[in-house]
Amino acid sequence: MIIIPIINREQAEALIQEQLVETIFQDAPKSSVFMSLARKLPNMTSKQTRIPVLDVLPTAYWVNGDTGFKQTSEQAWDNVYLTAAELAVIVPIPEAVLDDASFDIMGEVKPRIIEAIGQRVDSAVIFGNNRPSEWQNDIITVARNAGNNVAATGKMYDNLLGEGGVWGKVEDDGYDVNGAVAAINMKSSLRGIKDDAGRPIFVTDMQGSTPYAIVGSPLTFPKNGSFDKSVAQIVAGDFSQAVYAIRQDITVKILDQGVIQDPTTKEIIYNLAQQDMVALRIVFRMGWALPNPATRMNGDRSGCPFAYLEPASPVKTYDVKFTVTDSEGNAIEKAKVDVNGSIQSTDESGVATFALRNGSYPYKVKASGYKGQTGTLTVSNAAPEATTIKLIKD
Predict the structure, then answer these.
(1) CATH superfamily to which 33-57+72-298 belongs
(2) What is the pTM (predicted TM-score) of this model?
């Protein structure tokens, strides 16, 4: 048998270049769910924007007889502030790595950072996770202190749409639900809802995609990792009542000079010029608020345009008690206590109680005819001592 010499694949393996797909397979970057649902205000021109909000509604009275006395009423306004908080990140990359890469590394990094910004915004605004100290309480905290948290007991249908359910809580405060946000595994719970005859209530379209909605309110299932299932299963409400404004839109800058320090130790980690590195710096600044103005169905502003369904094991909170009296120690009823955006009126004993997680909370207390007071309290793994506020006549 004659063997004819050839150059086979094994001998030429070092010269064969593998085909390189020019697309990296990954999920499309996800943006902020909150910012897609809430109402956007004009861009901020400074760090803080003030919104005047109706605080006290006037009252009309019937006049008794032809010569009866007409009574007087008051109307008052409060200030709600949007304070710009900053999200930023620096990504250092050796120039040699950029030169040798088969892909546009910068182009791949930027959309992922934008996705991370959206995740941080949603997580802070809705759940209070890593909430900037300049921002008011998150939507969950405001809803909880308005009594708009629903325990996950009984049938899912009743928890959501029954009397005292999530939708009912929002409607009781005078608002209509125009949107809801839920964990993606909530889809299976919704598909499992059945009527008394055992027939599924959720109907799918076998020929196309079926959008998820509850009594006409569209559902959004965040895929940016922001939804905290340990805090809520679904959050629903009137998202037009939540507002945000951008102080500085996403700004990208390439740095090739300077040093990068450890934020804690201040030790220099990288010297960009000396180590032939560049750094991608991205900055974003925005503020948000839930103004919660007084309405005829929410006159003392203690209600909330949002409600939520709790998980099987509700998140741990601590009771924070305020007692409001006059200078002589007499209880002041209907004094308004505002703990960083969560508002309650005192009862006949002058007491208002809030359910708060760990954190620092600024507060202000006021009552008609008295000078207001402000302060700050801290919750740290225990209910703090009751706070007694003595108001002085105006």
Answers:
(1) Major capsid protein gp5 (3.30.2400.10)
(2) 0.88
